[in-house]
Amino acid sequence: xxxxxxxxxxxxxxxxxxxxxxxxRINKPWRPNxxxxxxxAMPRMLAELSSDPESGLLGYRMxxxxxxxxxxxxWKSTEQLYxxxxxxxxxxxxxxxxxxRAARKAPGSVGIWHExxxxxxxxxxxxxxxxxxxxxxxxxxxxxxxxxxxxxxxxAAA
Length: 158
Fold this sequence. Notes:
Elements (H helix, E strand, L loop, with lengths): L8 E3 L5 E10 L5 H19 L6 E9 L2 E8 L2 H9 L5 H14 L4 E10 L13 H6 L1 E3 L6 H5 L5
Antiparallel strand pairs: 1-6, 2-4, 2-5, 3-4
Helix pairs in contact: 1-3
């Protein structure tokens, strides 16, 4: 079981940050020939990225919701994210091409979506939690008792 930290903690990171959400919706579960290859490609991509400290991927977290699997990724920059996506010799390009070929056979059987957020400031609070989320991928620091979210977030850029 993960260690629980009772004190107030926050992430420890001041660099550029991109949050990338990518998910899959399995609309026809009886068609694993269409969704299983994409589903199994994601762990290979994450392993490839995680093994390369220069990739720009800070870390990730995988979850499953009512819509299907979701991966929350934390990146150093959009340039590094887009560079990975376009590398012809990386895991992503052949997986994306295979998904598109399969999806054309039965449109609407499986859906893929993503959202990219460029974050200029971030605030976090973890109390009575194991190290998770942004703190897990960037580092953690104690948060002063009585500090408020607005103080941790800091002023908006002009």
